[in-house]
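As noted in the main text, all predictions were made from sequence alone. Below is one such record, for Heavy metal translocating P-type ATPase.
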Amino acid sequence: MTVTYHFSLPGITCGACVNSVQGLLEGEKARLKLLSWGVDLGTKRGFVSVLQEQDDSTTRKELITLLDVYDITGISVEHHPDPQSPVIEKNPQDILLQPSSSYGVSQAEDLAPELLPPPSLPLYKRVLKWHWLWGVIGTVCGIALMIACMVTGGLPLAVMIALGVTSVVLTLILGASSYYQAAMKLVKARTLTMDTLFAISTLTIIGVSIASFFVPWLPMMFEAGLLIFGFRHIGLAIEESIKDKLGLDRTYQSDLPQRVRVLKEGKEESVDLSQVAVDDILVIQPGEIIPLDGLCLSDDNWIDDNIISGAIMPRRLRKGEHLLSGMRLPLNASPLVLQVKAVKKESYLACLDERIAKAYMEKAPIEEMATNILQYFIPAVIGLALLSGIIIACFFPPALAIQCAVTVLVSACPCTLGLVVPLALMIGNRKAADHGVQFKSGKALQAAAGIDAVVLDLNGTLTLGEPKVTRTGLLDDEITTADLYSLSAALENHSTHAFARAICDDAQEKYGEKIPHNLVKQVDDSYHAGLKGEIAGTEYLIGNQELMEQEGVKFAPDLVQKIPLQAGDSLVFLATRKKILGYFVLTDPLRSDAKLTIDALKAAGKTLFINTGASFETARRYAERLGIPEQNIQAGCVGGEEKALFIQSLKKKKYKVAMVGDGGNDGLPLACSDMGFAVQSRSGHQMASQNAGAIIQKGALLPIAHGLAIARQAVSNIKQNLGFSLAYNMAAVILTGGLLVALGITLNPAVGVALMILQTLLILGNAYRFKLQQSDAAPKGVDKADFGPCSYTQCQSSLPLKPGAHLDDPGVDLDTDPLPVGENQDLILESQSQFALTGSH
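Prediction:
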């Protein structure tokens, strides 16, 4: 069994700390039987997966001992059963986001991690983290000491000694955390961090200042140590407040109510959400969030599933539909009765939070580049500080050389290099999830940013994957419509294709028990385009035009042209070896946001392709409706290998390819592409989700456009901040290392700290700008505010109800199908797209 330990690491302060933790875990990989691990600087959390029989307290103690230097706290345990362990099979529709495990906590196995009390540090460590207090003390005392020395022009020796002792003691108190962290990380983890730079610089200042009592030409800089740590604490306090505004610790479950209404024996009782069990009955009031996954027991209603599908309008809800936590009941809807099917720790939102958290842990290539830079940055800064001190001492007084060396140490800021990438990826993942797309890792998000070609599967991806028979036709006088259905249903009963199910369902609906049951022999279902079998001594074939031509059935050249077809229509023929007997016209309607998504992708400069197993004529009709060039259609790709070959051919043409699919045969092309999007649908397959880099919930397509746009914004933000951080550090080292001295300018080390803080704030401010930035996926001429998740208040006015009315009131008509199928489909789809774009009500 695999056991995963999740924990907090408050002691990590920069990218060097993250590298150190990963190095410590790498060193203990064999001894502790570690399978995988990850650390996230933004949230200061990590996990370790261990191969062991059960939750072992020895492993917990080993982790605490190993990572104690980083204040490891709040360890929770997640159990993963062995792959061969029996599992309960579920309906594929219900496997939107499967929990990877059931949580349990050692010594409190009945508690989920979110119910545990927040981890607390020892009192002395909490006191050391009162950054605003210590920042004000250090800054005020340092400025006061500097003013006193400047105004008086010199103080008596006794006073100077008293002030020196006081400032040294206060500097050591202000820097106690940095000294402790630097020493422990150097001794236990053998790593240099930001704390190392502050410790070296302030201890140098203290040593030189004390020595100045005995060596008159040395500078006395007692105020510099106070100002350095004063500014340091103020900077940390501001950084924490900005991170709070960024909501890095916030999860989707944070919005859930703590208590819910449970219906017991006809009465409503208020129960803690964590105590709700499977099959409990909940009552959800209008305006409230669906807290747990379950079945809707109410009659016609409305639901806002923006968090799942990215849809901007509420949709119709029917009794018996499966609902996921995070959906919201609109204000104008009726109260909803829900039968719980998953407890809190196994709900959709719990799994979504878990996936996002794990995505933070997997490093993107650009993050690995920043990490590699950090490995050499701090030693390089220390070396440059020594070098600048030596060079300046050759031409200027030693006092000036010491001051310059200290300024170099405190002005350099490696912590931003380690924070830039995970911060942007975290915000990007969260924004993408808000728009209905879940990136599995930072690596996937970065890959999405470079995509310039999008390959789309047809059935089940661009379409709903729910074909219906719209009409039939007879081409032989010897059979009736009932015969056409009888023979076709008998053959199609041996197929799992969506068209086969549609024909069988339509036959059952129209004829029921009246339809004769024919015995089929020698069934050959090896064709993707159909199948053949023997009924009463006659061989029949059923399938598309390609199958008929492949099997040599007489096929009039103008037959298809004589049958009126619309976009979304497909033909299935029934034939013998000699002639065509009849046909079915099936319509698999486009998704309501398909045209809008294609327009958005085209506006973003993406080259679009259709790669499908359907016939070319069928694909061409869809492509014409969507505005995709005919030459960009690759039809007849039956298996995953053929689709994968098409993906490879595009990559050879230097395209960065994203594949969008849903079926089992899309698994291989999704894995072969630079970036794979798995669209969840009723006809979807779990292998598609497994091999994709991102998952689109509930079959919406708009999240693809948003996901690519947000990924591009995230990588752009990373490049901006990395470029600024590298430029600042290079400039800081060059200027403070001697250039300013050559110009006759000297900087107090405290000024270097202030500049470092300013750089950190600018980078965090740019990250906050990215968080507030809207997705630029909207096509030209469309307001960005109307393209994407609208506010909850805006959603309410979309309901066809008067304020205060309910769905069961007289006069409320709910008989409109949200996606009708028929000859007016194009007009309906176009009007729905315009409705989604303009937000018209």
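The longest helix spans residues 702-742. The first strand starts at residue 2 and ends at 8. These features were considered when defining construct boundaries for the mutagenesis experiments described in Section 2.9.
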